[in-house]
From TrEMBL:
Its EC number is 3.6.1.22. One of its GO terms (cellular component) is cytosol. NCBIfam families: PRK00241.1. It comes from Acinetobacter lanii. This is NAD(+) diphosphatase.
């Protein structure tokens, strides 16, 4: 019996099954193994790993539960979260490109690459990544700039972040976003790290920089409060596992940016 069960399990695929921003896992936060469907997205070539959207009305198997993917960031390794992020973003891309943006015809899934192909005009639509810069700003040896998002109803303070504009360098985006949101200029801008952020399909590109000049003047529709805080007097900050948390810990405690 055990050999039969083992053979049956070997035919099942490890599945990233999503409903909106929630992922289906067991009580140990492990992914389920399921029979592959024709509609599944082949996640990693050569491996039995798939990604799937679950319809809201579909029942889930006993022993499994929905967990917000944000909650898994602090529970999983960086590699595990990045794989889940990739699966989520690919499903989002496929869901949003069912029709050709050139001629409006219904698209088809390419047989061997991530592309939605128009059978009428042959236009290929590939997954897109939206680059965002996020910056940890220090002043002197013991102060860090933290800002509260105007749309955030909690008391959490984070870092200055924003989308990169067309034709703009990453460093220019760092300067522009900071000047727009809090009114100060920066110096010594340095790249730190990056993190896929699947809400819906962003790549967070982390920088550190030093305060150069100017007074704090807030862009009120974006920022409700911003202050330079002493390293030992921080307010509530982003949760562990987020790139913002790693950046703050990096400048205060010199911890590495990447967790294993």
């Amino acid at each position: 019996m055990s050999d039969q069960r083992s053979e049956q399990d070997s035919k099942l695929s490890l599945a990233y099954i999503f409903k909106h921003h929630e992922l289906l896992v067991d009580q140990h936060l492990q992914l389920p193994r399921v029979e592959k469907l024709d509609s599944d997205l082949n996640f990693i070539a050569g491996d039995q790993i798939i990604a799937r959207d679950l319809h809201i009305e579909e029942a889930i198997p006993e022993g499994l539960q929905w967990i917000p993917i944000r909650q898994l960031i602090s529970q999983w390794s960086q590699v595990e979260f990045e794989q889940a992020s990739r699966a989520m973003q690919l499903l989002e891309w496929r869901r949003n490109h069912k029709f050709c943006s050139h001629c409006g015809s219904e698209t088809e899934v390419h047989s061997s690459e991530y592309a939605m192909v128009c059978p009428a005009c042959r236009y290929h639509q590939y997954p897109r990544v939206q680059p965002c810069v996020i910056t940890v700003i220090t002043r002197g040896d013991d102060e860090i700039l933290l800002a509260k998002n105007a749309k955030n109803k909690s008391n959490m303070y984070g870092l200055i972040a924003g989308f990169v504009e067309v034709g703009e360098t990453l460093e220019a985006a760092v300067q522009r976003e900071t000047l727009e949101e809090v009114g100060i200029k920066l110096k010594n801008i340095q790249y730190l790290s990056s993190q896929p952020w699947p809400f819906p399909s962003n790549l967070m590109i982390a920088f550190k920089a030093e305060y150069d000049s100017g007074d704090l003047v807030l862009q009120e529709e974006e920022i409700s409060d911003a202050q330079f805080f002493k390293f030992d007097q921080l307010p509530e900050i982003p949760f562990a596992g987020s790139i913002a948390y790693a950046m703050i810990q990096h400048v205060i405690h010199q911890t590495p940016m990447h967790k294993k």
